[in-house]
Every structure is written in C-alpha cells, then in structure tokens.
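Need residues for this backbone.
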C-alpha cells in the first residue's frame, strides 16, 4: 500500500520478497538477505529510539491504520488473571512501554 501510494510499486515489484510474517521480514533485513524492508517498529526501537542502523517511519497518510486490539473473551469474563492483564494493557505504565517501541494509542 505504501509503495503504491508513493508511486513506485511498479518500479520495484520484481525485487520484492515477502516474508511469511513480520518476524521473517525482519530476519531478511537483519541478516542482510534483503537490502531494506518493512518491519515492525518494536523490532528496531528501544526506549523511543532506533536501536541500530537506519530507518524511516512511514507517514500515516501512506497506509491504512493497522489496529491491534486486546479483548476479554466471554469464557474468561470471570477469570481474574485475564481481567488483570486487560486492565494492565490499558494502564499508563503499559501505554508508556508501548509508546517507547514507537507505537501510539
């Protein structure tokens, strides 16, 4: 989507290698089997800074939002540990950790 919105997809299409998941995409880049790649911010950010190498955070107007949510399943509605985890994920402490890896809420 980003490459299309930049108008360069057709120019690079024959050079694209797709990972089966975000971990494999990161592995391609980390092992230099790919010159560059789209990877998760959490794989390259530590405490709000790029941990090594170079990077470009894709502007939000070049892709559709990627939502990641947590839900409490009905069968866990009486599970105190599940409720505690969900409450923690909404806490200021958890949100600060999430933001330190480059994500916003």
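Answer:
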């Amino acid at each position: 989507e980003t490459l299309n919105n930049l108008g360069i997809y057709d120019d690079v299409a024959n050079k694209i290698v797709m990972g089966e998941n975000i971990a494999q995409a990161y592995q391609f880049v980390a092992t230099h089997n790919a010159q560059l790649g789209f990877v998760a911010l959490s794989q390259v950010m530590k405490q709000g800074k790029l941990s090594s190498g170079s990077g470009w955070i894709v502007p939000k107007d070049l892709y559709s939002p990627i939502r990641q949510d947590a839900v409490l399943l009905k069968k866990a509605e009486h599970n105190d540990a599940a409720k505690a985890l969900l409450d923690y994920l909404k806490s200021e402490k958890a949100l600060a950790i999430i933001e330190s890896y480059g994500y916003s809420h």
